User: Fold this.
Amino acid sequence: GLGVVLVGLAMAFGAIGISSEVGYGGVGPNFLPWLCAVVLAVCGAWLIWEARTGGFREAADPGGHPKADIGPFVWVSAGLLVNAALIGTVGFIISCTICYVLAVQGLRRASRQPQAGSIGTWAKDVVTGVLISAPVFWAFTQFLAINLPGLTDTGWL
Assistant:
């Protein structure tokens, strides 16, 4: 809880330097950082209060494994890192599809699904990743006019 409060305070300190000029819609660019800082500080304070009053002692057992499973963590982390490394060279759609596939593989392995490594599952994950990332890319580039890295200069791939 104290760590969450400290992150909230750090965000508030960073938000001080952001311009507060009112933009389109009546809010400035510092609105969201301040909102996040306040929400984090409130959540951190709530966590501290719950820990000190024993509020989570009656909660149901969350289940899961008693020890961290490093394999799924590596899969999900690899997805995020590969996405960050490739987005500028292969474009948003392909890099986000790879991120999705690796992250889903990690989550499947964490839940001990037996079909996690099968070719059919990989193919389904690739298709699903494209079906998610392509419309997001098109919505941002074509409809909102926000530049995202693409594979071509057309704005459609």
User: Anything to note?
Assistant: The helical segments are 2-15, 31-53, 70-90, 92-110, 119-143. The CA atoms of residues 7 and 37 lie 8 Å apart. The longest helix spans residues 119-143.
